[in-house]
Design brief:
Layout: E1 3-7, E2 13-17, E3 24-29, H1 32-49, E4 50-53, E5 56-59, H2 62-73, H3 87-95, H4 109-122, H5 126-147, H6 168-181, H7 183-195, H8 199-203, E6 210-211, E7 216-218, E8 224-225, H9 250-263, H10 271-284, H11 289-296
Antiparallel strand pairs: 1-2, 2-3, 4-5, 6-7, 7-8
Helix pairs in contact: 2-3, 2-5, 5-10, 5-11, 6-7, 7-10
């Protein structure tokens, strides 16, 4: 695999790997040695992630995975509750991010955290970022299963920004430890992992927002959820009673989630990681990106 390093005008170094459609690179290395080291490792990753189908050859990247996933999703029409915007169109800016051009075996949690910082600056807000990241994680999982089954999942390891996608045993452990921390914690973690609802909307809810007999929860200013019955308030709880007793604000949630992360050996775990886990699971189970956008609050539900 052809690799090249060259100085930049600002004194940093750039590394380039491959050529033609298989070319990718990275900027802002402090010196030539750092650029050469990255180029060598990236060249090995490119060989590991080069996929051949008949006479065709392509590089397994996040962009390739996401493009195929978005095409498979198709456009959900308004008549079926969609926004009638093609997922491929929505994902186009993410596809252009430089880290999406890396071979998948070179894409690390640190790269994902840096990618999220760039995307958050370009998107309307955190809700849109969560939906976009869920799509990326689901696309990578599908692509790995089909083309590169031996490849590790970059979303499985905790990233510097506290996000990851938890596996089933970790979800079960998180629910168990949350239950020991109090009723409000048990509900919060259970709701995050089963509905993917945003934390601020859950904190703003009270028992009056739940319809126990109907099995639904209407979040204030948010979507209608159908959580597991055991997470709904009992019939005797006053409507004005807090939905998550003992959880006063987002700071308390962040601190408690960090403790759960310590027990899971994922230091710095953020509550949004549990939300992301649920959103990825929903996409893998057949929900459309439009439904995820509405759930996170990135898009308003279409009028019928």
């Amino acid at each position: 695999m052809l690799t090249r390093v060259r100085p930049e005008q600002d004194g940093s170094w750039q590394a380039l790997v491959g050529q033609g459609t298989l070319r990718f690179g990275r900027d802002a290395f402090p010196d030539r040695a750092a650029a050469e080291d990255w180029a060598a490792r990236a060249g090995l990753a490119a060989r590991q992630c080069t996929i051949r189908i008949g006479s065709k050859r392509f590089l397994g990247t996040a962009a390739e995975a996401l493009r195929r996933w978005a095409i498979d999703q198709g456009t959900l029409p308004r008549a079926e509750g969609g926004t009638q915007v093609a997922p491929l169109q929505r994902m186009a800016p993410l596809l252009e991010d430089p880290d999406c051009a890396l071979p998948l075996s070179a894409l690390a949690p640190e790269d994902l955290a840096a990618l999220r910082r760039r995307r958050l600056a370009a998107l309307p807000g955190p809700a849109a970022l969560m939906a976009e990241q869920a799509a990326l994680a689901a696309a990578l999982e599908q692509f790995r299963d089909f083309h590169l089954p031996a490849l590790d999942d970059p979303f499985a390891e905790i990233a510097p920004d506290g996000l990851c996608v938890l596996d089933e045993p970790s979800c079960a452990q998180a629910i168990g430890w949350a239950g020991q921390m109090g009723e409000g914690w048990g509900r919060l973690v259970g709701l995050l992992l089963t509905t993917g609802a945003p934390v601020p909307a859950l904190l703003a809810a009270c028992c009056g927002h739940a319809d126990g007999p109907g099995g639904r929860l209407q979040l204030p200013g948010g979507p209608m959820l159908t959580p597991p019955p055991e997470l709904l308030p009992g019939p005797g709880e006053p409507p004005a009673a807090p939905w998550l007793p003992g959880l006063a604000d987002a700071g308390m949630v962040v601190a408690g989630m960090a403790e759960i992360g310590r027990r899971l050996q994922r230091p710095g775990l953020r509550p949004e990681a549990l939300q992301l886990t649920a959103l990825v699971r929903a996409l893998n189970q057949g929900q459309h990106l439009d439904e995820i956008l509405i759930l996170t609050g990135a898009e308003a539900a279409p009028r019928r």
